[in-house]
Amino acid sequence: EATGEILLFRLVAEQVSHNPPVSAFHFECPQQRLSISGNLSIKAKFMGMYVGVTLGGDMVLELPAHNHSQDQETEKYEMTFPMLYLRSFLFEPWLEFGGKININCSESKLSAGIVFQTKPFYGGKPHQVTAEIKGQSGNTTARISGDWTSGVMELCWVNGQSESIDLQTEGDLLEKKIRRISDQADEESYKLWYPVRRNLISGDFQSAAEHKKIVRILLL
Q1: Cα separations (Å) of 25 from 15, 22, 37, 57, 194?
Q2: Could you give the CA distance from residue 123 to residue 88 in angstroms, rounded to a whole number?
Q3: Contacts for 147-152: CB closer than 8 Å, 24+ residues apart
Q4: Residue 4 — very low, low, confident or very high, per pLDDT cuts 50/70/90?
Q5: Three-state DSSP class for 185?
Q6: pLDDT at residue number 72
Q7: Which of 63, 203, 214, 216 lies at a 20 to 30 A Cα distance from 170?
Q8: Spatial distance between the Cα atoms of 192 and 194, rounded to a whole number of angstroms
Q9: pLDDT digits 0-9 by tens, 88-115
Q10: Taking the domains of the chain in order of start, what are their residue ranges?
Q11: Mean per-residue pLDDT for 38-56?
Q12: CATH class of 10-171
């Protein structure tokens, strides 16, 4: 930040079920009193020319209360996940989201619906979204549209005013750092699946299958 403060971010993610595959995650920044928690399941289906992936589960974003005069200290925004599509996987694979997600906050009584529009077969632009924000009365107060990957969106209020907003979705990618296997607990996903990964890399598929059976039993 401009003040020179170093922000601390923590992320914990673990596979909590193997069949069906379900992962749980928690992300937080204590200094900003921000946290994200949720669970995610994946169900893929081959659709001929593409693969459709249903992202099940939900996520909760917790922020400091926007109106500090309110009794509550935080606001919790509950949201769902969109569909994920793998396009042109035989030639030049690329990914896009599709479908609608809903966001609701019981503390502020605000809600929003975000529609991820899939790219038409001919023409059109990828990664387009439209959204409607509703106030406490349930009436639409603003609409947002644009390319979510670029971060530049158009915000239009119901009174006719509009403005461009930059969500700044792009940033430096940080290299993932993983603790040594010996420092991990026995139930951590990376350590549980490490023998499977090691045997697959070495080409010992029989041992990989045997270790996979062990992991499935442990995760039941």
Answers
A1: 9, 10, 6, 11, 20
A2: 15
A3: 148/116
A4: low
A5: coil
A6: 66
A7: 63
A8: 6
A9: 877 888 999 999 999 999 988 999 999 9
A10: 10-171, 187-220
A11: 91
A12: mainly beta
